[in-house]
Design goal:
Length: 368
């Protein structure tokens, strides 16, 4: 046996790699079509009932010829069905089945995967900037990624943050359940569009929540979301860097019973400073919670689908965003438990505890 054979016993053949890449091209085309269907309102219009290309174009203010080609692609790809495939092209009526409608239009369903497609397709607009960053060692910031990144990230987490997170996951931890039941003060670090803070407030009417984020447009949207959800009297959002010297946590008036960071520590250029601020912000007996990606404990190749997904986000979004800031540690999406443990200890914590909360994509840590 050669050395190469011993080190890579499962090396794929050229045919296998070619087949996989070809399948990925088909998947990429489907993602791009989904991006267009979302941005142009095609899916939402089809969810209301079957449409011809003429009807879809008229209802979405788009060109019929483009609408027709998009509809036919979606039918050929198995997303849409056609009531009358033998009719004239402009008279064929296309239908969005219930299962597809849930995935593509139900913003509160756990099966709403469309935001991930929007994120992936939107990042394609920045490949030139990413290539430049790879060459220079610089980055592409969250602000540069723009509205696609902001909106798709928030939409992807919205079902969890308004559903299982406040309703099932957080109350399953006794120390956190006690905070929720007695109406404690909660700080949400890196709150984005505010769905985690809003979800906690909706599920637990006695609590008050302060959300903090460095992204101004996200904070403005979060404030509007809180008003629309009817919780603006108990949920406040602050445009501030929680890790900066002037950030929260400097006085007793800023002490909280639960200080949480939901899926954001791996994005932070200076996570130790933020974790140290979270420690300062915590009242005596309070809980510090970090929820981040459930990646493998150690590197191994090949990896499972979740590991591949997280590396995919890292090479096109999270690592470039992190490295866009001076002095960044450059964590990337794949933040393993030992990496967080090192950050926590540098921030003054003794250790991290992995909590017994089971989720496919997220791991729950208590910092002690």
């Amino acid at each position: 046996m050669t050395t190469d054979a011993m080190t890579a016993p499962n090396t794929p053949t050229a045919e296998e790699v070619g087949e996989r890449l070809f399948a990925a091209v088909l998947g990429t085309q489907l993602v791009q079509a989904a991006y267009l269907g979302d941005r142009l309102g095609y899916y939402r219009t089809l969810a209301a009932g079957p449409r011809t290309s003429t009807e879809l174009a008229a209802r979405t203010a788009t060109a019929e010829r483009y609408a027709r080609e998009w509809l036919e692609h979606q039918a050929v790809a198995g997303v849409l069905t056609v009531d009358d495939p033998d009719a004239a092209p402009t008279e064929r009526r296309f239908r969005l089945p219930a299962g597809a409608a849930e995935v593509l239009t139900d913003v509160l369903s756990p099966n709403h995967v469309l935001p991930l497609a929007r994120m992936a397709a939107g990042q394609g607009r920045h490949l030139d900037a990413l290539a430049d960053a790879y060459r220079s060692g610089g980055g592409v910031s969250w602000a540069e990624f723009g509205v696609d990144a902001r909106e798709s990230q928030a939409a992807a987490n919205r079902p969890l943050f308004l559903g299982a997170l406040p309703r099932d996951y957080l109350p399953s931890v006794p120390e956190i359940r006690a905070v929720l039941e007695r109406g404690g003060r909660i700080a949400d670090i890196g709150c984005g569009f505010g769905w985690s803070a809003i979800g906690i407030a909706l599920a637990h009417p006695a609590v008050t929540v302060d959300g903090f984020d460095v992204d101004g447009p996200s904070i403005e949207t979060a404030r509007q979301n809180a008003v629309e959800a009817g919780v603006a009297d108990r949920v406040r959002f602050h445009h501030v860097d929680a890790g900066a010297d002037a950030g929260p946590g400097g006085g007793t008036e800023d002490r909280y019973d639960l200080v949480a960071a939901f899926e954001c520590v791996h994005d932070m250029p200076h996570p130790v400073g933020v974790l140290a601020a979270m420690r300062r912000m915590t009242a005596p007996g309070g809980v510090v919670l970090v929820v981040d990606e459930r990646v493998a404990d150690t590197f191994a190749a090949p990896g499972d689908d979740v590991e591949q997904l997280m590396y995919g986000w890292s090479i096109t979004c999270c690592l470039p965003d992190g490295l866009a800031h001076p002095g960044s540690v450059g964590t990337g999406t794949v933040m393993r438990p030992d990496t967080l443990r090192a950050y926590a200890r540098d921030a003054g914590f003794a250790d991290i505890e992995v909590l017994p909360v089971e989720d496919l994509f997220f791991r729950f840590y208590r910092l002690v």
